[in-house]
User: Fold this.
Amino acid sequence: MLACAELFARDLEAKELHFSVSQTDDGGDIIKFPYDNRMTTCIFKGEDGRYLSMYTVVERVPADKLSDMYAVCNAINARYKWLKFYVDEDNDLMVEDDAILSVESAAEESFELLMRRLNIMKETKAEIMRVIYS
Assistant:
């Protein structure tokens, strides 16, 4: 396991949180973290796993709501510049962010990024759901 991913996994274990670990085909590590009926996928790559990408599928967006969701994504992206909200080619609303970690603080940095993203997703949930279910 890459150093940064291993440190993050140990931190999650110490906090007694549930997660799963697997590997990418090209030698990266994947840590999946379930929360609020959604899975956040953390992909560690590069030297020591210092490059971290986090992805969460929030909801499927109905085709007739796409233009409204694009406007909501723009508004959210303007407020939260360190996360990217977008609709992918499958009409899934995605939340993504990337970071370069240092091995010395990888566990703390990764956990802080995870908590920040989960809080932002919680803060924006009503706004997103209004578009999808209105």
Notes: The chain has a mean pLDDT of 97. The chain has three helices and six strands.
